[in-house]
Every structure is written in C-alpha cells, then in structure tokens.
Amino acid sequence: TQVVLRQAWLENIKPVLVINKIDRLIVELKLTSLEAYTHLQKILEQINAVTGTLFASKVLEERAEKVKEEVDRDKDLGGGQVYDWSTGLEEADDSHLYFSPEQGNVVFASAIDGWGFSIQDFAYIYSQRMGIRIELLLKTLWGDFYINTKTKRIMKGAQAKEKKPLFVQLVLDNIWSLYDAVVIRRDRLKVEKVVTSLGIKVMTRDLRHSDPKILLYGICSQWLPVSSAVLSMVCEKLPSPLEVSAERVEKLMSIGTHRFDSLPKKTQELKTAFLQCSSGTNAPVIIFVSKMFAVDTKALPQNRQR
C-alpha cells in the first residue's frame, strides 16, 4: 500500500481507497462488529499517515528550495536580508489529500463475496427508511456518533458513553448478521427473512447449494454490488479523463528511457486522440498495459492439451 501511494504521489495521480477482504474479519478472525470498526479506523489512520508524510516532505523540499533561492539572491545583493525559516507546513492545506469515508473516497468491500459500499449508499438507505436528512447521515455515519433512542437524535460521544457508533449499529451489524445466518449458522428461515426484507430475488439453486458462499454471493451482489460502489466513487471523486494534461499523456506514451519525440510518427499522432478521449466510431482504441506477468508457454491457450 505504501509503495502504491508513493507511486501515485510521484505521478500526481489522485487516488481513491478500497478496503477489501472484510469478510476475513468475520469468518477467519471472528472479530465482533465493534472490534472490526476499531480495526478499520486504525487502517485508515495508518494509510493517511503515509499520505501526510509524503505531503510534509514535498512542502519541506519546496521550502528548502525557496530559502536557498533567497540566500543566493541575498549574496548577489550584498547581504543584510532577514530570512523566514518557517517550514511552511503551518500554512499548507492538506485536508483534500486524505481518505475519509464521509468525503466519499473510501469503499469497504469483500470482492470475493460480491459486496462493497461507501457511506453514501447507507446514508441513502437510512434517509428513506428513518426519515433522517441524508446530509446529516453523511456527516455522522463514520465517527464517534450514536443514536439516542429516547430523543431519536444523533449525538456525539459514543465512545465515552459506551454506545455503539452509528457505523457499527446501522452498517456493520447488518453485514455481520447476514454472514451469521448464511455462512456460520446456515439458518434457512433467517436467510429467507433477510432476502424478503432486502427485496431481492435469489435463485432456488443458490438457496439449495451446499456451499453457503454461493448463496452469500447471490444475496450480496444484488444488495450491495461492489462494481457499482467502486464505479460510483471513480465517477464522483476522480478527475475526468478529458482533464488530463498533454505532459501526462506524453509521459504515459513514453516507455522507460524513450522520449516522446523519439517515438514513431504514427505513435506521436495518437496524442491528439488520447487528449480528445473520444468514443466515436472513427476514433482509435488505445490500450495501456500497466502490468505484465510471466506465464509458462504450456499455459498459453494455443499450447494447452485438449
């Protein structure tokens, strides 16, 4: 994760975060929903700490260059200048760089079981079900907030009052109970109730399948499809491909030590199509290979034994 974050930072790519394999917290580590919430909080803190370090080093480098320029200029002018030795970190705004569920740039997922969601998905569900304003839920679904059942108000200070945080009560508890019914206890009656309450249809063969993971995938992929959650986050939080700079296009098209102007003429002409990002029938299809794997020749389709 650190390597990928550093690479994204160096290439000036805006990242979004998918925290995957949450099913393992339930089935393998057997954490409670509250323990899992604490674990997820720590993961977010650690990832944001890496981002903070990268940002701080960038600010300090820029500040050091500025001070050096001031010193060199003062030497040329004959001295007598007063230098500002502050780091520049105090004034720099880094709030937009961090991963935060309430900002919508984090998805929680179990890709193997077909589910994934952002805070926005549950905020929409509960605003309709409970009549709470969606703006309020977006601010309180992640963090130290709880529902006061007597006053029916969302309050701060869940940890101090030993209350379940909203994220645990309204989100994780539902997922935990689903796994409990389908995978752990295999309670068919409870599964039927869950399916009915979610308003989804599961195929009969999935309900009768000996592997509970098949049934779980059939429910989750309809209830909280991971593909929808990730695609929505990409569309809402990442910049449009039409905003890509010409310099970045040239960098993507240049492999290794090859400079853009050393590429074949026909390849250089693709830059225009790259910038236009057109889906027209006459526009060329451009494929960017980001990773290659070594495969044994025997495993290639044409070499497999029938």
Average pLDDT confidence is 87
Shape: globular
Number of helices: 12
Structural class: mainly alpha
In terms of per-residue confidence, which ranges show pLDDT below 50 for 5 or more consecutive residues?
A: none
Number of strands: 5
Largest sheet: 3 strands, mixed
Q: Note the gap between the termini.
A: 41 Å
Order of helices and strands: HEHHEEHHEEHHHHHHH
Strand-residue proportion: 5-15%
C-alpha-based Rg, rounded: 26 Å
| Helix content class | 40-55%
Lateral arrangement of strands in the main beta sheet: 1-2-3
Chart the SSEs and their pairings.
Blueprint: H1 2-10, E1 17-19, H2 23-27, H3 33-77, E2 106-110, E3 115-117, H4 119-130, H5 134-140, E4 145-148, E5 153-156, H6 166-184, H7 188-198, H8 204-208, H9 212-223, H10 226-237, H11 246-253, H12 265-276
Parallel strand pairs: 1-2
Antiparallel strand pairs: 2-3, 4-5
Helix pairs in contact: 1-3, 3-6, 4-5, 6-9, 11-12
How would you explain this protein's 3D organization?
The chain is mainly alpha-helical and 306 residues long. Helix content is 51%, strand content 6%. It contains twelve helices and five strands. The strands form two sheets. The chain has a three-stranded mixed β-sheet. The protein is globular. The two termini are 41 Å apart.
Short structural summary:
51% of the residues lie in helices and 6% in strands.
Write a concise keyword list for the protein shown above.
mainly alpha, three-stranded mixed beta sheet, two-stranded antiparallel sheet
